Amino acid sequence: MKNASGSVAGGGLKLGVLLMATPLLLWLLLLVILPHLDLLMVSLRERISYGKYAFSFTNYIEFFTEPLYWNTYVRTATMSILATALTLVIGFPISYYIAKVMRGRGKSVLFLMCLIPFWVSELVRTFGWMILLRESGVISHFLQWAGLVDGPVEMLYNDVTIMVGLVYTSMLFMVVPLVSVLDSLDDSLIEAGYDLGGNAFTVTRDIVIPHAMPGIASGCIVVFMLTLGNYLTPNLLGGKSSLWFTEQIYTQFITRFNWESGSAFGFLLLVLSSLIVWLGLKLSRQTLSDTVG
Amino acid sequence: MIPSIPQSRYAKGIYGAYVTLFFVYLAAPLVVVGVFAFNDSLFPSMPWEGATLAWFFGDTAPYIGIFHDSALLRSIGTSAFVAVWVTLLSVTVGTCNAFLFERARFPGKNLLYMLAISPLVIPGVILGISILVFSNAIANGVEEAIGWDLDFLRPGLFLVIIGQFAFITTITTLVISARLRKFDITLEEAALNLGASRADAIRTITIPYLKPALIGAAIVSFLMSFENFNTTLMLVGSDAPLTIAMFDRLKQGSTPALNALSLLLMVVSGGLALISVFAQRDRSSK
User: For chain A, first and last CA: distance in Å?
Assistant: First the structure.
């Protein structure tokens, strides 16, 4: 506004900025900053008697000494990393196909076809996987019809199914940044690579992937974060054996009404998520604003 | 691997088959949800018992169609109520934020910008519990100090709206800022030179220019609110929005009425998606 502000009285501008900043400040303070500080405070207290609390690390100590909590945490992190890697490996060729192989109308149609499923609620998508994979589901019936198995097969409630659902749910957030970054890669660079004696493998390794790095980083960060914080997919596709950390948080808060330890769990998940996001940004030498903006 | 580089037919065929397989994977769950809405059976599963429209219009138990399922219909109403409020609030605040970040210069702007996009990297469940804990602390504090029971700060629709607003505002801010960044400021200056007041210039020049972004942001906020699950789960009271009601039904096992509802949702959100895509296309061709 440096041009426009010249035509407006200087004092009025300051007041205007303050007025415009009010909703922003209220939003950030009341809904983002203070609630998270309060979450941290609650996680650091211990209930002594009704309405009486004392500062303590009990909730965190409990987390580290109880193998169930600790294992669920590590398992959630590992599965999220695996899901992110799989999404990248599956989504990259698709993004490349849309960005570089397809031309004109077919390209936008294909891209749109990638986007549409994700406007549909995650609940509906997961429901679809349940109908496909359950014991009385489509795939089980198809296998019996084809004579490949003798009886109904239950394909729900195991880790592979959770992984299928997580990769499915995350695909959009990988494909969109990858397509946009690959779109900006000039075809002549790929041609030059081939002219200089490269083959599909070396061109991909030395030209395409380095160019796509910013897109890979932002895709991976978003996918990892969403997977880590997912509740629906592990819960519905994994059933009781899913052992997802968000379910632990839900149990502490809603079922056991133990807000202190639930807050500690929530804070630990937030730390893990922020740490991986920060690490991803550092490794790819990006800032958060580049990634989301 | 681009059209100008000759490739063996074999490699092309494999690549094409992979892409086809991928789209089958994308479409499969949505197709089965839709197809089983018409299955004349009490469960959304095999075998196929013939086609029926009872899961849409049926009114005799056990064939209660979605249009006669009062609990689900009520939850659709609840979700729409929440989504309208979230959309209004987040588009308004998002527009303010966009003007602030794109036009104003003030100390601490970068820090504020970082904070404003941070809700995107906070998992929804954690955003939910932090708002739950904080609002509960305020409610308890007020009750102890002056004895008022601020019921709206307990789990319920008010908190659901606030919780969804907390992260959807980030998205509206980003969408509207992106459009405002491309605005040619001299248009506004011309209006000012021609005697318009600052408010008139913004109302008649800048806001019409922002309209595609405002509509796009509104559609995205509405859908994100309507489909939100994680944050809502933590803040919901006795009135369940649609996603929560559907989740409960799914856990109990449901009739294909749930498929019928899902099919309707797919049609509506698919339609909205196309509208917003075409709104964006107009923007780029201008």
Answer: 20
Cα nearest neighbour of B264 on chain A:
A120
Q: Which two tokens stand for residue B273?
A: 């998606």
Q: What's the CA gap between B94 and B98, in Å, rounded?
A: 6
Determine contact, residues A100/A212, Cβ cutoff 8 Å.
Answer: no
Distance from CA of B210 to the nearest CA of A (A): 17
The tokens describing A203, both together, are 């061109």
Q: Count each helix (H run) and each strand (E run) in chain B, helices first.
A: 12, 2
Number of C-beta neighbours around residue B117 at 10 A: 17
Domains and CATH numbers, chain A: 1-43 (no CATH), 58-292 (1.10.3720.10)
Minimal-distance CA residue of chain A relative to B227:
A121
Q: What is the mean pLDDT of residues B66-73?
A: 79
| CB atoms A117 and B27 under 8 Å | yes
Q: Mind listing the pLDDT tens digit for each residue in A101-158?
A: 888 788 888 888 888 777 788 888 888 898 888 877 778 777 778 877 777 777 778 8
* ipTM metric: 0.83
Cβ of B133 and A259 within 8 Å?
yes
Q: In Å, how far are A113, B131, B229, B230, B261 from A127, measured between CA atoms?
A: 20, 29, 14, 16, 12
Average pLDDT score over residue span A38-53? 81
Cβ distance B123 to A121 less than 8 Å, yes or no, reads no
Helix (H) or strand (E) holding A291: helix A288-292
What is the rounded radius of gyration, in angstroms, for the C-alpha atoms of chain B? Answer: 24
Options 3.40.50.2300, 3.40.50.300, 1.10.3720.10, 3.90.70.10; CATH for B72-254 is: 1.10.3720.10
